[in-house]
């Protein structure tokens, strides 16, 4: 989706690994049958108005919860949550992450390492501008549906595998069912589980 919206940080959020797989997933992240929603970061709604990004493609429950009514395009607000997808910070230092269930998002974990670093940097930038934002979004993210703990974390400049107890610590209370099938995918693909893709097994 090259004709995409813009974040309040003036980034289109285009991710090459995502672009390569959209023919498979059918833009599943832009649809909301699974019960999920978009989180606007604290201050993001107000900042979008300041920088004249259009929001008529989004339906708002409040200034922090939204869903898409159609894909965003240039000049529209692309929420930071969407630009970070399929990752989301899971702790207040943005060093541990949630990742979208791979039965919805087919991007392999190994292609998300650089994305993890980028989300870490953006989240800390946001926290500096809006102190307390990370604590708030981590708390709100506990209501997400269809996310699993990302198996890697940042430790200073190093990328380390998460320990089983660390994964358990950030596991969400609501997950997709064991027989979940994403209706947006263009075809059923073997080898995709909630936590990995066939490429992760190579």
What is the radius of gyration computed over CA atoms, rounded to a whole number of angstroms?
Answer: 16 Å
How many individual β-strands? 8
Order of helices and strands: HEHEEHEEHHEEEH
Terminal CA distance reads 28 Å
Structural class: alpha+beta
Record the strand order, biggest sheet: 1-3-2
Morphology call: globular
Domain module tally: 1
User: Strand share of the residues?
Assistant: 5-15%
Binned, the helix content reads 25-40%
Number of helical runs?
A: 6
Main beta sheet, described?
Answer: 3 strands, antiparallel
Show unreliable segments.
Answer: none
Mean pLDDT: 90
Would you mind describing this structure in some detail?
The protein has 202 residues and is an alpha+beta fold. It has one domain. The protein has helices spanning 16-25, 44-50, 80-84, 113-129, 133-141, 164-170, and strands spanning 38-39, 58-60, 65-68, 87-89, 97-100, 147-149, 152-155, 158-161. The strands form three sheets. Strands 1-3-2 form a three-stranded antiparallel β-sheet. The chain has a three-stranded antiparallel β-sheet with strand order 4-5-6. A two-stranded antiparallel ribbon has the order 7-8. It is globular, with a radius of gyration of 16 Å. The two termini are 28 Å apart.
Q: What's the SSE blueprint?
A:
Blueprint: H1 16-25, E1 38-39, H2 44-50, E2 58-60, E3 65-68, H3 80-84, E4 87-89, E5 97-100, H4 113-129, H5 133-141, E6 147-149, E7 152-155, E8 158-161, H6 164-170
Antiparallel strand pairs: 1-3, 2-3, 4-5, 5-6, 7-8
């Amino acid at each position: 989706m090259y004709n995409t919206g813009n974040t309040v940080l003036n980034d289109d959020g285009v991710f090459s690994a995502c672009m390569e797989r959209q023919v498979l997933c059918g833009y599943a992240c832009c649809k909301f049958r699974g019960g999920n929603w978009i989180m606007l970061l604290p201050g993001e709604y107000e900042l979008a108005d300041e920088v004249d990004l259009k929001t008529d493609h989004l339906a708002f429950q409040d200034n922090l919860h939204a869903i898409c009514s159609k894909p965003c395009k240039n000049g529209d607000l692309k929420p930071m949550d969407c630009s970070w997808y399929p990752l989301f910070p899971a702790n207040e230092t943005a060093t541990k992450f949630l990742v979208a269930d791979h039965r919805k998002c087919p991007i392999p974990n190994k292609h998300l390492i650089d994305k993890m670093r980028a989300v870490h940097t953006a989240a800390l930038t946001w926290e500096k501008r809006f102190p307390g934002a990370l604590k708030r979004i981590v708390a709100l993210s506990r209501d997400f549906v269809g996310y699993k703990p990302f198996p890697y974390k940042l430790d200073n400049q190093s990328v380390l595998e998460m320990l089983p107890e660390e994964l358990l610590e950030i596991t969400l209370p609501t997950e997709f069912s064991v027989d979940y099938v994403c209706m947006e995918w263009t075809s059923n693909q073997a080898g995709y589980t909630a936590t990995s893709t066939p490429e992760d097994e190579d």
